[in-house]
Specification:
Length: 358
Protein backbone atom coordinates (compact mmCIF):
# COMPACT_ATOMS: atom_id res chain seq x y z
CA UNK A 1 0.00 0.00 0.00
CA UNK A 2 2.92 2.33 0.68
CA UNK A 3 6.57 2.36 -0.38
CA UNK A 4 8.66 2.87 2.79
CA UNK A 5 10.79 5.98 3.13
CA UNK A 6 14.54 5.61 2.73
CA UNK A 7 16.54 5.37 5.95
CA UNK A 8 18.74 8.44 6.56
CA UNK A 9 21.54 7.74 9.01
CA UNK A 10 23.76 10.62 10.14
CA UNK A 11 26.06 12.02 7.47
CA UNK A 12 29.66 10.94 8.01
CA UNK A 13 32.66 11.87 5.87
CA UNK A 14 30.76 13.62 3.08
CA UNK A 15 28.78 15.95 5.34
CA UNK A 16 28.67 19.61 4.25
CA UNK A 17 30.12 22.29 6.53
CA UNK A 18 26.58 23.54 7.18
CA UNK A 19 25.48 20.16 8.58
CA UNK A 20 24.62 19.67 12.25
CA UNK A 21 24.30 16.06 13.42
CA UNK A 22 22.07 15.02 16.30
CA UNK A 23 24.80 13.20 18.15
CA UNK A 24 25.30 13.48 21.94
CA UNK A 25 27.74 16.42 21.69
CA UNK A 26 25.17 18.51 19.76
CA UNK A 27 21.98 17.85 21.73
CA UNK A 28 20.29 18.63 25.01
CA UNK A 29 17.83 15.99 26.17
CA UNK A 30 14.73 17.40 27.80
CA UNK A 31 16.21 20.83 28.57
CA UNK A 32 16.27 24.10 26.66
CA UNK A 33 19.48 26.12 26.10
CA UNK A 34 20.29 29.20 28.17
CA UNK A 35 22.30 32.26 27.22
CA UNK A 36 25.41 30.83 28.86
CA UNK A 37 25.43 27.58 26.87
CA UNK A 38 28.12 26.92 24.28
CA UNK A 39 26.88 27.12 20.71
CA UNK A 40 27.46 23.88 18.81
CA UNK A 41 27.24 25.70 15.46
CA UNK A 42 27.65 29.34 14.36
CA UNK A 43 26.17 31.03 11.30
CA UNK A 44 25.85 34.50 9.83
CA UNK A 45 22.32 35.84 9.26
CA UNK A 46 20.93 34.56 5.97
CA UNK A 47 22.71 31.21 6.25
CA UNK A 48 21.20 27.79 5.64
CA UNK A 49 21.86 24.84 7.94
CA UNK A 50 21.12 21.14 7.40
CA UNK A 51 20.05 19.76 10.78
CA UNK A 52 19.31 16.22 11.88
CA UNK A 53 16.68 15.67 14.55
CA UNK A 54 15.73 12.51 16.39
CA UNK A 55 12.46 11.66 18.06
CA UNK A 56 12.21 11.07 21.78
CA UNK A 57 9.95 8.10 21.08
CA UNK A 58 12.08 4.99 21.35
CA UNK A 59 14.80 6.49 23.56
CA UNK A 60 12.86 7.23 26.75
CA UNK A 61 13.19 5.38 30.03
CA UNK A 62 9.69 3.88 29.93
CA UNK A 63 10.66 2.40 26.55
CA UNK A 64 13.84 0.84 27.94
CA UNK A 65 16.21 3.62 26.82
CA UNK A 66 17.27 1.22 24.06
CA UNK A 67 15.90 2.15 20.62
CA UNK A 68 17.13 -1.03 18.93
CA UNK A 69 15.33 -3.27 21.43
CA UNK A 70 12.21 -1.08 21.58
CA UNK A 71 11.68 -0.96 17.82
CA UNK A 72 12.61 -4.65 17.45
CA UNK A 73 9.44 -5.36 19.43
CA UNK A 74 7.53 -3.88 16.49
CA UNK A 75 9.52 -5.85 13.90
CA UNK A 76 12.06 -3.15 12.95
CA UNK A 77 15.46 -4.67 12.05
CA UNK A 78 18.47 -3.39 13.98
CA UNK A 79 20.04 -1.88 10.85
CA UNK A 80 16.95 0.32 10.35
CA UNK A 81 17.33 2.04 13.74
CA UNK A 82 19.14 5.41 13.75
CA UNK A 83 22.65 5.19 15.19
CA UNK A 84 22.42 8.73 16.59
CA UNK A 85 19.27 7.80 18.53
CA UNK A 86 21.12 4.81 19.98
CA UNK A 87 24.06 7.04 20.95
CA UNK A 88 21.86 9.67 22.62
CA UNK A 89 19.97 7.03 24.60
CA UNK A 90 23.24 5.52 25.80
CA UNK A 91 25.33 8.66 26.43
CA UNK A 92 23.25 11.81 26.92
CA UNK A 93 22.20 12.85 30.45
CA UNK A 94 18.48 12.86 31.16
CA UNK A 95 16.63 13.11 34.47
CA UNK A 96 13.09 11.73 34.60
CA UNK A 97 10.74 14.08 36.44
CA UNK A 98 12.93 17.14 35.93
CA UNK A 99 13.62 17.13 32.21
CA UNK A 100 11.12 16.98 29.38
CA UNK A 101 11.21 14.11 26.87
CA UNK A 102 12.42 15.96 23.77
CA UNK A 103 15.87 15.68 22.20
CA UNK A 104 16.94 19.22 21.20
CA UNK A 105 19.52 19.81 18.45
CA UNK A 106 21.52 22.99 19.10
CA UNK A 107 22.02 25.69 20.17
CA UNK A 108 22.99 27.51 16.98
CA UNK A 109 24.48 31.00 17.31
CA UNK A 110 23.15 33.48 14.75
CA UNK A 111 25.97 35.97 14.89
CA UNK A 112 25.01 39.54 15.66
CA UNK A 113 21.51 38.80 16.94
CA UNK A 114 20.60 40.93 19.94
CA UNK A 115 17.66 41.08 22.35
CA UNK A 116 14.89 43.08 20.71
CA UNK A 117 15.60 41.61 17.26
CA UNK A 118 13.40 39.00 15.60
CA UNK A 119 14.91 35.75 14.36
CA UNK A 120 13.16 34.50 11.22
CA UNK A 121 13.55 30.73 10.80
CA UNK A 122 12.42 29.58 7.36
CA UNK A 123 11.75 25.88 6.84
CA UNK A 124 13.16 25.14 3.40
CA UNK A 125 12.91 21.36 3.39
CA UNK A 126 11.94 18.50 5.72
CA UNK A 127 12.87 14.92 4.88
CA UNK A 128 11.85 11.80 6.83
CA UNK A 129 14.76 9.78 8.23
CA UNK A 130 12.86 6.55 8.97
CA UNK A 131 9.82 4.69 7.65
CA UNK A 132 8.22 4.36 11.08
CA UNK A 133 7.41 6.18 14.30
CA UNK A 134 5.21 6.15 17.40
CA UNK A 135 2.11 7.82 18.85
CA UNK A 136 2.05 7.61 22.64
CA UNK A 137 -0.50 8.04 25.40
CA UNK A 138 1.25 7.83 28.74
CA UNK A 139 1.21 8.74 32.41
CA UNK A 140 -2.46 9.76 32.46
CA UNK A 141 -1.66 12.85 30.39
CA UNK A 142 -3.27 14.13 27.21
CA UNK A 143 -6.72 15.63 26.75
CA UNK A 144 -8.34 12.94 28.94
CA UNK A 145 -6.06 12.49 31.97
CA UNK A 146 -7.38 9.84 34.32
CA UNK A 147 -9.51 8.42 31.51
CA UNK A 148 -6.91 7.51 28.91
CA UNK A 149 -4.89 5.38 28.77
CA UNK A 150 -7.32 2.85 30.20
CA UNK A 151 -4.43 0.49 30.88
CA UNK A 152 -2.15 0.94 33.88
CA UNK A 153 0.91 1.72 31.80
CA UNK A 154 1.64 3.79 28.70
CA UNK A 155 0.25 2.81 25.30
CA UNK A 156 2.56 3.04 22.28
CA UNK A 157 0.94 2.89 18.84
CA UNK A 158 3.44 1.95 16.13
CA UNK A 159 3.01 3.68 12.75
CA UNK A 160 4.54 2.98 9.37
CA UNK A 161 5.21 5.67 6.77
CA UNK A 162 6.06 5.94 3.11
CA UNK A 163 5.02 7.07 -0.34
CA UNK A 164 1.39 6.32 -1.17
CA UNK A 165 -0.82 6.98 -4.20
CA UNK A 166 -1.81 10.39 -2.80
CA UNK A 167 1.64 11.35 -1.48
CA UNK A 168 3.41 10.80 1.87
CA UNK A 169 1.19 8.50 3.89
CA UNK A 170 1.01 7.20 7.44
CA UNK A 171 -0.40 3.77 8.27
CA UNK A 172 -1.64 2.18 11.50
CA UNK A 173 -2.32 -1.54 11.33
CA UNK A 174 -5.41 -2.68 13.25
CA UNK A 175 -7.23 -6.00 13.62
CA UNK A 176 -9.97 -4.62 11.38
CA UNK A 177 -7.59 -3.38 8.69
CA UNK A 178 -5.19 -0.49 8.03
CA UNK A 179 -5.86 3.15 8.86
CA UNK A 180 -4.13 5.48 6.41
CA UNK A 181 -3.73 9.25 6.65
CA UNK A 182 -1.72 12.00 4.90
CA UNK A 183 1.58 13.13 6.40
CA UNK A 184 2.64 16.70 7.00
CA UNK A 185 6.17 16.99 8.32
CA UNK A 186 7.02 19.71 10.85
CA UNK A 187 9.24 20.46 13.83
CA UNK A 188 7.23 20.74 17.03
CA UNK A 189 10.08 22.60 18.74
CA UNK A 190 11.72 25.69 17.22
CA UNK A 191 12.99 28.29 19.64
CA UNK A 192 15.61 30.64 21.00
CA UNK A 193 17.36 30.62 24.38
CA UNK A 194 15.64 32.33 27.27
CA UNK A 195 17.37 35.08 29.26
CA UNK A 196 17.60 32.78 32.25
CA UNK A 197 20.50 30.77 33.64
CA UNK A 198 18.23 27.83 34.50
CA UNK A 199 17.76 25.00 32.02
CA UNK A 200 14.00 24.83 31.71
CA UNK A 201 12.08 21.71 30.71
CA UNK A 202 11.51 21.28 26.99
CA UNK A 203 7.77 20.76 27.51
CA UNK A 204 6.08 24.19 27.96
CA UNK A 205 6.31 26.71 25.09
CA UNK A 206 6.51 30.48 25.62
CA UNK A 207 7.64 33.77 24.13
CA UNK A 208 10.92 32.00 23.36
CA UNK A 209 9.01 29.63 21.06
CA UNK A 210 10.02 26.11 22.00
CA UNK A 211 7.39 23.36 22.00
CA UNK A 212 4.80 25.30 19.99
CA UNK A 213 3.47 22.26 18.10
CA UNK A 214 1.88 24.35 15.33
CA UNK A 215 1.45 21.88 12.48
CA UNK A 216 1.26 24.65 9.86
CA UNK A 217 4.96 25.46 10.30
CA UNK A 218 6.00 23.01 7.61
CA UNK A 219 8.19 23.38 4.51
CA UNK A 220 7.80 26.90 3.09
CA UNK A 221 6.77 28.49 6.40
CA UNK A 222 8.72 31.03 8.44
CA UNK A 223 8.60 31.24 12.23
CA UNK A 224 9.43 34.59 13.84
CA UNK A 225 10.94 34.47 17.32
CA UNK A 226 11.83 37.40 19.64
CA UNK A 227 15.57 37.20 20.39
CA UNK A 228 16.25 37.13 24.14
CA UNK A 229 20.03 36.58 24.42
CA UNK A 230 23.05 37.61 22.29
CA UNK A 231 23.38 35.47 19.13
CA UNK A 232 19.85 34.10 19.72
CA UNK A 233 21.05 30.50 20.37
CA UNK A 234 18.40 28.81 18.25
CA UNK A 235 17.44 25.14 18.50
CA UNK A 236 15.01 22.62 17.02
CA UNK A 237 13.53 19.25 17.92
CA UNK A 238 10.35 17.23 18.45
CA UNK A 239 10.02 16.16 14.79
CA UNK A 240 6.58 15.05 13.61
CA UNK A 241 5.39 13.17 10.55
CA UNK A 242 1.81 14.29 11.27
CA UNK A 243 -0.30 15.91 13.97
CA UNK A 244 -3.94 16.81 14.30
CA UNK A 245 -4.68 20.16 15.92
CA UNK A 246 -4.98 19.47 19.64
CA UNK A 247 -2.54 16.50 19.76
CA UNK A 248 -5.04 14.99 22.18
CA UNK A 249 -3.37 11.65 23.03
CA UNK A 250 -0.22 13.46 24.30
CA UNK A 251 1.98 12.90 21.25
CA UNK A 252 1.19 12.71 17.56
CA UNK A 253 3.07 10.72 14.86
CA UNK A 254 6.54 11.27 16.30
CA UNK A 255 9.41 10.38 13.97
CA UNK A 256 12.82 11.85 13.00
CA UNK A 257 13.39 14.46 10.30
CA UNK A 258 16.31 16.03 8.47
CA UNK A 259 15.62 19.78 8.24
CA UNK A 260 17.10 22.42 5.96
CA UNK A 261 16.51 25.80 7.60
CA UNK A 262 17.52 29.40 6.89
CA UNK A 263 18.17 31.84 9.73
CA UNK A 264 17.48 35.52 8.97
CA UNK A 265 17.57 38.48 11.31
CA UNK A 266 15.14 41.39 11.59
CA UNK A 267 16.90 44.01 13.66
CA UNK A 268 15.26 46.54 15.97
CA UNK A 269 15.79 49.26 13.38
CA UNK A 270 13.74 47.37 10.83
CA UNK A 271 9.99 46.84 10.75
CA UNK A 272 8.92 44.13 13.23
CA UNK A 273 5.25 43.27 13.26
CA UNK A 274 5.13 41.52 16.63
CA UNK A 275 7.13 40.94 19.79
CA UNK A 276 5.74 37.45 20.25
CA UNK A 277 6.17 34.26 18.19
CA UNK A 278 4.18 34.06 14.98
CA UNK A 279 4.48 32.26 11.67
CA UNK A 280 3.83 32.96 8.01
CA UNK A 281 3.25 30.89 4.89
CA UNK A 282 2.55 31.96 1.31
CA UNK A 283 -1.15 31.87 2.14
CA UNK A 284 -1.48 32.68 5.84
CA UNK A 285 -0.33 34.80 8.75
CA UNK A 286 -0.34 32.61 11.85
CA UNK A 287 -0.42 34.40 15.23
CA UNK A 288 0.16 32.10 18.20
CA UNK A 289 -1.40 32.41 21.65
CA UNK A 290 -0.05 30.66 24.75
CA UNK A 291 -1.22 30.20 28.34
CA UNK A 292 -1.77 27.43 30.88
CA UNK A 293 -5.47 28.23 30.60
CA UNK A 294 -6.91 27.48 27.15
CA UNK A 295 -9.35 30.42 27.30
CA UNK A 296 -6.46 32.76 28.11
CA UNK A 297 -4.43 31.23 25.26
CA UNK A 298 -7.32 32.04 22.93
CA UNK A 299 -7.39 35.65 24.14
CA UNK A 300 -3.59 35.88 23.74
CA UNK A 301 -3.91 34.65 20.14
CA UNK A 302 -6.62 37.22 19.35
CA UNK A 303 -4.43 40.01 20.76
CA UNK A 304 -1.51 38.75 18.68
CA UNK A 305 -3.70 38.71 15.57
CA UNK A 306 -4.85 42.28 16.21
CA UNK A 307 -1.24 43.36 16.70
CA UNK A 308 -0.20 41.83 13.37
CA UNK A 309 -3.09 43.44 11.49
CA UNK A 310 -2.51 46.85 13.08
CA UNK A 311 1.24 46.90 12.46
CA UNK A 312 1.41 45.16 9.10
CA UNK A 313 -1.67 46.65 7.42
CA UNK A 314 -2.33 49.72 9.60
CA UNK A 315 -5.87 48.54 10.21
CA UNK A 316 -7.91 50.27 12.86
CA UNK A 317 -8.21 47.89 15.80
CA UNK A 318 -12.01 47.71 15.75
CA UNK A 319 -12.00 46.91 12.01
CA UNK A 320 -9.33 44.25 12.50
CA UNK A 321 -11.38 42.72 15.31
CA UNK A 322 -14.49 42.59 13.11
CA UNK A 323 -12.50 41.02 10.24
CA UNK A 324 -11.09 38.32 12.51
CA UNK A 325 -14.57 37.46 13.74
CA UNK A 326 -15.97 37.20 10.21
CA UNK A 327 -13.18 35.52 8.30
CA UNK A 328 -10.41 33.99 10.43
CA UNK A 329 -10.30 30.49 11.87
CA UNK A 330 -8.73 29.88 15.27
CA UNK A 331 -7.50 26.36 16.09
CA UNK A 332 -6.20 24.67 19.21
CA UNK A 333 -2.54 23.86 18.52
CA UNK A 334 -2.14 21.51 21.47
CA UNK A 335 -3.61 20.91 24.94
CA UNK A 336 -0.90 18.60 26.31
CA UNK A 337 2.20 20.72 27.01
CA UNK A 338 1.30 22.43 30.32
CA UNK A 339 1.17 25.77 28.47
CA UNK A 340 -1.60 25.32 25.93
CA UNK A 341 -1.63 26.82 22.46
CA UNK A 342 -4.03 28.41 19.98
CA UNK A 343 -3.12 29.60 16.50
CA UNK A 344 -5.06 31.54 13.87
CA UNK A 345 -5.12 31.36 10.08
CA UNK A 346 -5.35 34.88 8.61
CA UNK A 347 -5.68 34.69 4.82
CA UNK A 348 -3.22 37.15 3.28
CA UNK A 349 -5.24 37.24 0.04
CA UNK A 350 -8.12 38.92 1.93
CA UNK A 351 -5.80 41.84 2.69
CA UNK A 352 -3.96 42.12 -0.62
CA UNK A 353 -5.61 45.44 -1.52
CA UNK A 354 -4.31 47.10 1.65
CA UNK A 355 -1.01 48.98 1.82
CA UNK A 356 1.67 47.31 3.92
CA UNK A 357 2.97 49.19 6.95
CA UNK A 358 6.62 48.68 6.00
Amino acid sequence: MIEPFQLLQRLDGCAPASYLAADPRNVLWGRLPTGSDRAVHKVAPGSEVLIDTISHEGVLEDQGRDPAAFFASFGVPADEVLTDAIAVAAESPHTVGRDGPHVITGPIAVLGARPGDLLAVTVLELTPRTAYGVISNRHGKGALPGEMPAEAGPVFTFCRAGHGPQGPTGLIDTAEGPITFPLRFFLGIMGVARADERHHSSVPPGRHGGNLDVSMVTAGATLYLPVQVPDALAYVGDPHFAQGDGEVALTAFEAPLRARLRFDLITQGERAYSDRPYAETDEYLIPIGLDEDLNAAMRDCVRGALELLERRYRLERSVAYAYLSAATDFAVSQVVDVVQGVHARIRKADLSALPRGD
